[in-house]
Amino acid sequence: MNCELREGQIGTCGVRINKGGTLYTYTYGSLVSAAADPVEKKPLYHFYPGHRTFTIATPGCNLHCLGCQNWEISQVPKGEILENDFFEETYVSPEKIVQKAFELKCQSISYSYSDPTVFIEYVIDIAKLAQKRGLKNIVVTAGYINPEPLEELDKYIDAYSIDLKFFSEESYRKYSKGKLAPVLDTIKFLFSKGKWIELTTLLVPQYIDEEQLESIARWIKKELADWIPWHISRFFPHYKAKDLPPTPMKTMLKAYEKGKSEGLKYVYLGNVSTGEYENTFCPSCGEKVIERRGFTVSKLNLKGRYCMNCGYSVEGVF
Predict the structure, then answer these.
(1) At what angle do helices 249-261 and 210-219 cross, to 10 degrees?
(2) Domains in the chain, please, with CATH?
(3) How far is 99 from 80, CA to CA, in rounded Å?
(4) What are phi and psi of 277, to 5 degrees?
(5) What is the CB neighbour count within 10 angstroms for residue 10?
(6) 89: which residues sit within 8 A by CB, 6+ positions away?
(7) Cis, peptide link before residue 248, omega less than 30° from 0
(8) What values do phi and psi take at 70, rounded to 5?
(9) What is the predicted pLDDT for the residue at 274?
(10) Nearest to residue 202, comparing CAs of 224, 160, 226, 172?
(11) Could you tell me which residues come within 8 angstroms of residue 156 by beta carbon, excluding any fewer than 6 positions away?
């Protein structure tokens, strides 16, 4: 974001270079990961629950999270794109991506694993084709993107899973080498456009505290809506954050209670062994309307979008 490059310089993402005043990407179509996932894995719990989504990624990222779990593909060393013919030999066309989604009986395509902001041209070209053929498009992102490319991207995207990592500029800077304010702007813009969004906060020990959690919950309710799903995810040590411990379960439960006490209707816990906090409960009568086991929907007590017990219209896209 706002990355200015000199002639011949490679960006912090590791995959773009300035050549003659034009910014080139070396990884367009260089597929490094592809899988048919349950949409709940994104995580999206209120966007066509239970459907399969074909998820893809190319290398690189515009953030540098210390505990990145996909660091092998996201943290591309500068210069590797110029020396490694991998990026030329792994090309997969947008047409083949859409075709594969149909072959795997997926109802959507998700752009994830690394951040789609660094392969936005590829995303847009695929999403245009997918949209024409009736597939939905999902972006899983840290939300660190300038307004102009975001507006272009949003023309073709149906739902977003967005990381709201912290509510502290200092934590963003130290952990991710990023900033909080642009992420909040991205979230507010997408909400204003009426797109379905769900937010995820990874509870990284030493970088997020109760005050930040309260601020996030209050911000969601005030700036967005009380029905925006908030996923609270348990941290496990990876990459350059192996010195940190896993998030204690008591911290996870406290965070859950913070969200509920601030009036959020749909709060979920992820990366935990107990399944009760992955279920969706009707905000009106309290009945369980979506039961999940891991990433699988095991029971759906909805008629369309309505609670089968009281008739409440559960917020989401069903």
Answers:
(1) 30
(2) 28-278 (3.20.20.70)
(3) 30
(4) -85, 5
(5) 19
(6) none
(7) no
(8) -115, 30
(9) 75
(10) 172
(11) 124, 127, 128, 130, 131, 137
Neighbours of 248 (CB within 10 A): 12
pLDDT of residue 26: 86
The model carries a pTM of 0.96
Report pLDDT for 78: 74
- Token pair of 43 as six digits: 């995580």
Read off the tokens for 247: 């998030």
DSSP codes of every residue in 243-273: TSPPPPHHHHHHHHHHHHHTT-S-EEEES-S
Beta pairing, strands 33-38 & 22-25:
unpaired
Of the candidates 245, 240, 246, 300, the residue with the CA atom closest to the CA atom of residue 273: 246
Query: What count of Cα atoms within 13 Å lies in the side-chain half-sphere of residue 213?
Result: 25
Radius of gyration for the chain, computed over Cα atoms and rounded to the nearest angstrom: 19
- Could you tell me the two tokens for 7? 């002639």
CB 300 within 8 A of CB 289: yes
Q: Position 240: which residue type?
A: K
pLDDT of 1 = 64
Read off the pLDDT of residues 256-299 as tens digits, 9 standing for 90 and up: 999 999 999 999 999 998 778 999 999 999 999 999 998 999 99
DSSP 8-state secondary structure symbol assigned to residue 152: H
78-95: pLDDT as tens digits: 777 767 777 777 899 999
Count Cβ atoms below 10 Å from residue 111 Cβ, excluding itself: 27
Token pair, residue 25, equals: 């990407």
Instruction: Please list the ranges in the chain whose pLDDT falls under 70.
Output: 1, 82
